[in-house]
Design a protein that fits this description.
Number of strands: 10
Helix content: under 10%
Number of helices: 0
Structural class: mainly beta
Distance between the termini: 38 Å
Order of helices and strands: EEEEEEEEEE
Strand order of the largest sheet: 4-3-10-7
Length: 134
């Protein structure tokens, strides 16, 4: 098996453009577009960050409402935000959601609710964000 060791990849036509050929040589994918530009794992009441990438701080807005603030802003609000709320220690299902109105280029506010739609802090919250950085 071969091994390539590098510290930096640069596209030949455009420095930030690297394409990866898919299985069967059928398609190509932009490497940059497929990378998470931010992610967060935090305590479910939004009071502490466990680990993160490109998240400068976490704000506990109110019960079951948090806001992750980005170190490097996104180009616009049309990025993809995916989140999950974990309820490890109870039998209550917890969902996470956000609304378009709660997104800015520099932060996303998110909410956790139980199956009945009532605000509920979870055990742990995890998010991933994909999009173009400014």
């Amino acid at each position: 098996m071969s091994e390539i060791l590098v510290n930096k990849l640069t596209g030949t036509s455009t420095a930030g453009s690297i394409l990866v050929t898919g299985e069967g040589n059928s398609t190509t994918t932009s490497l940059q577009q497929g990378l998470a530009k931010a992610w967060l794992t935090c305590i479910g009441d939004n009071t502490a960050i466990d680990d993160s990438l490109n998240v400068s701080s976490l704000t506990d807005v109110t019960t079951a409402t948090g806001r992750q603030n980005y170190s490097n802003s996104f180009n616009n609000v049309h990025y993809s935000f995916v989140g999950q709320a974990e309820s490890t220690f109870s039998t209550t299902m917890v969902n996470m959601y956000h609304t378009h109105a709660d997104k800015t280029a520099s932060a996303t506010q998110f909410f956790t609710v139980n199956a009945g739609g009532a605000n509920l802090d979870s055990e742990e919250n995890c998010t991933q964000v994909l999009g173009d950085l400014a």
